[in-house]
Design goal:
Helix 5 (99-132) packs antiparallel against helix 6 (145-156) and helix 6 (145-156) runs antiparallel to helix 7. The chain has 199 residues and is of the alpha/beta class. The protein has 2 domains: 2-97, Resolvase, N-terminal catalytic domain (Rossmann fold, 3-Layer(aba) Sandwich), CATH 3.40.50; 115-193, no CATH class. A 5-stranded mixed sheet has the order 2-1-3-4-5, sandwiched between helices. It has helices at 16-24, 43-51, 63-66, 70-82, 99-132, 145-156, 161-168, 172-178, 181-193; strands at residues 2-8, 29-34, 57-60, 86-89, 94-95. The protein is elongated, with a radius of gyration of 20 Å. Strand 4 and strand 5 (94-95) form a beta hairpin.
Length: 199
Protein backbone atom coordinates (compact mmCIF):
# COMPACT_ATOMS: atom_id res chain seq x y z
CA UNK A 1 0.00 0.00 0.00
CA UNK A 2 1.21 3.51 -0.84
CA UNK A 3 0.81 6.09 1.91
CA UNK A 4 1.45 9.75 1.14
CA UNK A 5 2.75 12.56 3.33
CA UNK A 6 2.62 16.26 2.45
CA UNK A 7 3.81 19.29 4.39
CA UNK A 8 3.91 23.05 3.97
CA UNK A 9 5.72 25.50 6.23
CA UNK A 10 2.99 28.05 6.87
CA UNK A 11 -0.78 28.14 7.17
CA UNK A 12 -0.94 30.35 4.07
CA UNK A 13 0.79 27.84 1.80
CA UNK A 14 -1.29 25.36 -0.18
CA UNK A 15 -1.00 21.58 -0.02
CA UNK A 16 -2.88 20.96 -3.27
CA UNK A 17 0.21 20.58 -5.50
CA UNK A 18 1.70 17.90 -3.27
CA UNK A 19 -1.60 16.12 -2.69
CA UNK A 20 -2.32 16.01 -6.43
CA UNK A 21 1.13 14.52 -7.11
CA UNK A 22 0.73 11.93 -4.34
CA UNK A 23 -2.73 10.96 -5.57
CA UNK A 24 -1.43 10.59 -9.13
CA UNK A 25 1.37 8.37 -7.76
CA UNK A 26 -1.27 5.98 -6.41
CA UNK A 27 -1.37 6.87 -2.71
CA UNK A 28 -4.46 5.40 -1.07
CA UNK A 29 -4.04 7.39 2.14
CA UNK A 30 -2.47 10.84 2.55
CA UNK A 31 -1.42 12.57 5.76
CA UNK A 32 -0.65 16.29 5.90
CA UNK A 33 0.90 18.94 8.13
CA UNK A 34 0.68 22.73 8.05
CA UNK A 35 3.41 24.04 10.31
CA UNK A 36 3.14 27.64 11.53
CA UNK A 37 5.66 27.34 14.38
CA UNK A 38 9.27 26.16 14.39
CA UNK A 39 8.51 23.80 17.29
CA UNK A 40 5.01 22.72 16.26
CA UNK A 41 4.31 19.03 16.59
CA UNK A 42 4.02 17.23 13.26
CA UNK A 43 0.91 15.22 13.96
CA UNK A 44 0.48 14.28 10.30
CA UNK A 45 3.94 12.69 10.09
CA UNK A 46 3.43 10.98 13.42
CA UNK A 47 0.14 9.52 12.18
CA UNK A 48 1.69 8.46 8.87
CA UNK A 49 4.54 6.59 10.58
CA UNK A 50 2.08 4.88 12.92
CA UNK A 51 -0.18 3.94 9.98
CA UNK A 52 2.35 2.38 7.59
CA UNK A 53 3.09 -1.30 7.97
CA UNK A 54 5.74 -3.75 6.79
CA UNK A 55 5.74 -3.86 3.00
CA UNK A 56 4.04 -0.45 2.60
CA UNK A 57 5.60 2.54 0.86
CA UNK A 58 5.74 6.08 2.24
CA UNK A 59 5.57 8.57 -0.62
CA UNK A 60 6.56 12.25 -0.44
CA UNK A 61 6.77 14.97 -3.06
CA UNK A 62 10.31 15.94 -1.98
CA UNK A 63 12.59 14.81 0.82
CA UNK A 64 12.55 18.29 2.34
CA UNK A 65 8.80 17.87 2.82
CA UNK A 66 9.52 14.78 4.93
CA UNK A 67 12.40 16.24 6.96
CA UNK A 68 13.99 19.65 7.31
CA UNK A 69 17.50 18.57 8.31
CA UNK A 70 19.90 15.69 7.78
CA UNK A 71 19.65 14.42 11.35
CA UNK A 72 15.88 14.10 11.09
CA UNK A 73 16.16 12.44 7.68
CA UNK A 74 18.58 9.87 9.09
CA UNK A 75 16.23 9.03 11.96
CA UNK A 76 13.14 8.67 9.77
CA UNK A 77 15.00 6.69 7.10
CA UNK A 78 16.41 4.28 9.69
CA UNK A 79 12.93 3.87 11.20
CA UNK A 80 11.48 3.00 7.78
CA UNK A 81 14.30 0.59 6.95
CA UNK A 82 14.07 -1.17 10.32
CA UNK A 83 10.32 -1.65 9.84
CA UNK A 84 10.74 -2.79 6.20
CA UNK A 85 8.82 0.19 4.83
CA UNK A 86 9.86 1.59 1.45
CA UNK A 87 10.37 5.30 0.75
CA UNK A 88 9.62 7.07 -2.53
CA UNK A 89 10.45 10.71 -3.21
CA UNK A 90 8.70 11.78 -6.40
CA UNK A 91 10.85 14.81 -7.25
CA UNK A 92 14.25 13.25 -6.49
CA UNK A 93 13.12 9.96 -8.08
CA UNK A 94 14.27 7.97 -5.03
CA UNK A 95 12.52 4.62 -4.66
CA UNK A 96 13.98 2.26 -2.07
CA UNK A 97 12.11 -0.71 -3.56
CA UNK A 98 14.61 -0.58 -6.46
CA UNK A 99 18.31 -1.54 -6.32
CA UNK A 100 19.37 2.08 -6.78
CA UNK A 101 16.95 3.19 -4.09
CA UNK A 102 18.21 0.54 -1.66
CA UNK A 103 21.67 2.02 -2.15
CA UNK A 104 20.21 5.26 -0.79
CA UNK A 105 19.33 3.50 2.48
CA UNK A 106 22.82 1.96 2.58
CA UNK A 107 24.48 5.35 2.19
CA UNK A 108 22.23 6.95 4.80
CA UNK A 109 23.01 4.10 7.17
CA UNK A 110 26.73 4.76 6.75
CA UNK A 111 26.19 8.46 7.42
CA UNK A 112 24.15 7.64 10.53
CA UNK A 113 26.93 5.39 11.83
CA UNK A 114 29.49 8.12 11.19
CA UNK A 115 27.29 10.59 13.08
CA UNK A 116 27.04 8.21 16.05
CA UNK A 117 30.80 7.76 16.12
CA UNK A 118 31.34 11.52 16.01
CA UNK A 119 28.97 11.99 18.96
CA UNK A 120 30.82 9.28 20.88
CA UNK A 121 34.15 10.99 20.19
CA UNK A 122 32.79 14.36 21.34
CA UNK A 123 31.47 12.79 24.54
CA UNK A 124 34.81 11.10 25.27
CA UNK A 125 36.67 14.34 24.58
CA UNK A 126 34.32 16.25 26.88
CA UNK A 127 34.77 13.75 29.71
CA UNK A 128 38.55 13.84 29.29
CA UNK A 129 38.52 17.64 29.38
CA UNK A 130 36.41 17.58 32.55
CA UNK A 131 38.99 15.36 34.26
CA UNK A 132 41.79 17.72 33.24
CA UNK A 133 39.88 20.59 34.82
CA UNK A 134 40.11 18.78 38.14
CA UNK A 135 36.84 16.91 38.33
CA UNK A 136 36.80 13.50 40.00
CA UNK A 137 37.89 10.59 37.88
CA UNK A 138 37.19 6.91 38.28
CA UNK A 139 33.80 5.26 38.51
CA UNK A 140 31.31 7.29 40.56
CA UNK A 141 28.26 5.70 42.10
CA UNK A 142 25.92 8.31 40.60
CA UNK A 143 25.62 10.23 37.37
CA UNK A 144 26.63 13.87 37.41
CA UNK A 145 24.46 16.22 35.31
CA UNK A 146 27.22 16.45 32.70
CA UNK A 147 27.58 12.68 32.41
CA UNK A 148 23.83 12.20 32.28
CA UNK A 149 23.62 14.65 29.40
CA UNK A 150 26.44 12.85 27.59
CA UNK A 151 24.82 9.47 28.22
CA UNK A 152 21.50 10.70 26.85
CA UNK A 153 23.15 11.81 23.60
CA UNK A 154 24.78 8.41 23.15
CA UNK A 155 21.66 6.43 24.04
CA UNK A 156 19.58 8.39 21.54
CA UNK A 157 21.91 7.19 18.78
CA UNK A 158 21.01 3.59 19.61
CA UNK A 159 24.27 2.76 21.39
CA UNK A 160 23.77 -0.12 23.90
CA UNK A 161 23.49 0.75 27.59
CA UNK A 162 26.58 -1.31 28.43
CA UNK A 163 28.77 0.66 26.01
CA UNK A 164 27.34 4.00 27.14
CA UNK A 165 27.94 3.08 30.78
CA UNK A 166 31.56 2.27 29.98
CA UNK A 167 31.96 5.52 28.03
CA UNK A 168 30.71 7.73 30.87
CA UNK A 169 32.30 5.65 33.64
CA UNK A 170 29.37 4.24 35.60
CA UNK A 171 28.04 0.70 36.16
CA UNK A 172 25.35 -0.37 33.70
CA UNK A 173 22.69 -0.84 36.46
CA UNK A 174 23.36 2.73 37.60
CA UNK A 175 22.76 4.01 34.08
CA UNK A 176 19.47 2.12 33.86
CA UNK A 177 18.44 3.56 37.23
CA UNK A 178 19.13 7.16 36.25
CA UNK A 179 17.98 6.90 32.62
CA UNK A 180 15.24 4.28 32.14
CA UNK A 181 14.77 2.89 28.63
CA UNK A 182 11.27 4.40 28.58
CA UNK A 183 12.80 7.88 28.90
CA UNK A 184 15.00 7.28 25.86
CA UNK A 185 12.05 6.03 23.80
CA UNK A 186 10.06 9.15 24.72
CA UNK A 187 12.91 11.51 23.86
CA UNK A 188 13.53 9.75 20.54
CA UNK A 189 9.86 10.02 19.56
CA UNK A 190 9.76 13.67 20.57
CA UNK A 191 12.82 14.54 18.48
CA UNK A 192 11.43 12.55 15.58
CA UNK A 193 8.45 14.85 15.22
CA UNK A 194 9.71 18.18 16.60
CA UNK A 195 11.97 19.52 13.89
CA UNK A 196 13.35 22.91 13.02
CA UNK A 197 11.56 24.70 10.19
CA UNK A 198 13.12 26.99 7.64
CA UNK A 199 12.86 30.75 8.37
Amino acid sequence: MKVGYARVSTIEQNLDLQIDALTKAGCEKIFTDKISSSKAKREGLESALEYVRKGDMLVVWKLDRLCRNTTELLRVSEYLKNHEIELHSLTENIDTSSPAGRMYFTILGAVAQMEREQIQERVKAGLAAAKLRGKKSGRPKALTPAKKSAALELLKTGMPYSQVAEAVGVPTPTLYRYIPAAEINLLTLKEKYDVTEEP
